[in-house]
Fold these 2 entries.
Entry 1:
Amino acid sequence: MDIALYVKSLIMSKKVEYRLRDLTSEEKEEMFLALSDDESIYDLAEKKSKIIELTSITEYEEEARGRYDTWGQMQGMSSGYDMIDDMTKGLVGGELIVIGARTSVGKTQLATNIAYRVARAGNPVLFVTLEMTKVELTSRIMKIAEPMPITNLPIMYQNSSDLDWRDVDALMGNAIKSGVKLVVIDHLHYFSRSTENAAQEIGRVTKAFKKNAVDHNIPVILISHVRKMIGKQKKPTSEDLRDSSFVAQDADIVIMLHKEEDDLATVEAFLEKNRNRGIFPDTRYGIFHSVGAPLYERDKYGKDSIPEKWTNTKLDIKPVREAQGSDSDGGGRDKDPTRDH
């Protein structure tokens, strides 16, 4: 066996792995037979061309007319929150929605509550999490649903925790076959493995997730951190997103969250970007009331809004203040699975 040729084949196959996914088995065999000529491998990859057809503008006129005629109204799936629906005008297929904030402000909390409400309305959700275990996430959802059971709730997780951003496309494809209507990814920076070119890799990741949303015609909620250097009293903007030049550029919608240190039960939400439906001054700002894992939107009278389907349940919505300081076990991780990361 020619060891040098074998090693070379492994290297070359890795280089073109993501360019040759669509090759047939015969073409792949031809590729390996061509290993003696590096250039021919890439030639073969390029020759695997897709037939790109042309379409007339009139084919999209009816759908575009519907959006044009309903400008300023709901155009997508409801998030389960009137406030978020007013901001976004709905979760629309093909759009990348970024939720950004500092640590422990409520990014995952809001995304999880949206996922729960969308699923409770009968729309299956794929929740991709690399930060929490599936048991931790399920515990959060149980707290949100309490005292209602989560039996048959259409929320799915990915099986593997060793997930690369390049795998998300195939994951979404499988999810679509299962009827998934919304994808939530927690969170963006777990997909950045590079220490030297993290910003550039984040750019590739966000572009890939946006492309996945478009290709599968499904809304994707992506959770993102902000830069550590901003002060806790400053209300973050889209410019404060970590590697913001890439994240904000690829996102269709950006929602930023903020908490004041002296009022941890109140979560402020700001709409920073809505590429396709605009920002309306009277609906770009809102307030949530944090009650452990659940989040309730606060109406203009300062009251917490509880969905009608849950009004038959007595809910304690007294303000909850989180204990400040580090964890007693010194591990820096909250033992309470309902706390946002």
Note: Residues 22 and 51 are 13 Å apart (CA to CA).
Entry 2:
Amino acid sequence: MPTIKDVARHSGVSISTVSAVLNESAWVPEDTRIHVQRSIKALGYRPNRVAQSLKKGKSNVIAVIISDLTNPYFTEVASSLQLRLMQEHLMLVICNSDRSHEIGDKHFEFMLARQMDGIVIVGDSVTEAALQRWQQMSDVPVVAIERDYAIANLPTLLVDSEQAAFEATTFLIERGHRNIAMISGPTHGVGSTTFGRSTRLQGYKRALEERGLPYRPHYVIEGNFQLASGERAMQTLLNLAEPPSAVFAANDLMAIGAIKAIQSAGLHVPNDVAVVGYDDIALASIISPSLTTLAMPKRELGETAAELVLHRLRATTTATPAGLSVAMPPNESVTMLHATLIRRESA
């Protein structure tokens, strides 16, 4: 296996010059840089990235912790995060808490110990207690998505789910529905502290109130953001003495589960029961009938989280690496984004 000495000998420069090229030092002339890079490629030399990271105090790796790898919403956010980071030659490590706060906290503490250059937390994957310990003990940049921690100055990206749920419910009312149910997120356990969990219910209630319709608690069935829970919730609603003619589900997976239950009961979507979801995962446009839903700004969430991490990395260094292009984050620690109603066949 070729060494850095072999590269220096092959390119006719000193070892320190090869090291400067590898570390992207600005003082190296462009023609020398190109010449050394050609030697590196010709010899098949691979630098020891671990040693480089220890020397520079940087890992060039960002971690993202998500709460459910099987939920396409999380993977789509992580994908956009990764694409933006790769433009700056940073790698992304994806950690799945698997709907367990204990696992999420272990991932978080492990990544802090491994000196990641930054950590992005998506959803209800890491507890507030873990964030409080981080605030006291570490300076690793952390960004939260869709989790409203009571942590001062923590860069946080949220989506106005209250307004989105209001628009979804209002849309159903304007379509002539009066008996509108909701499959909500959990009130206990993982997912219960996700920012949108309570705000989507608030938006649903506000729409009913503003249109003069009664709020009926038995029309709100709790799910856990997974497909099977949406199916069970819809079965419960269909067994009511007066079943709803429409249902708003707090995420697409539960909405898809609801459609499955409606069709299994021999009913038609949307003629018998209309369904609206939330997230606009890729599957929403593929299923039959295609799902009317609120599109979360997944790409914007990932890209903005990347910009926030990159800004803080730049702020902790004395010089910006060559080619690094970082957009300035907002002045406030909390950034509110918006969902968009996508009309399809299910409602």
Note: The chain has three domains: 4-47, 59-158+298-336, 161-296.
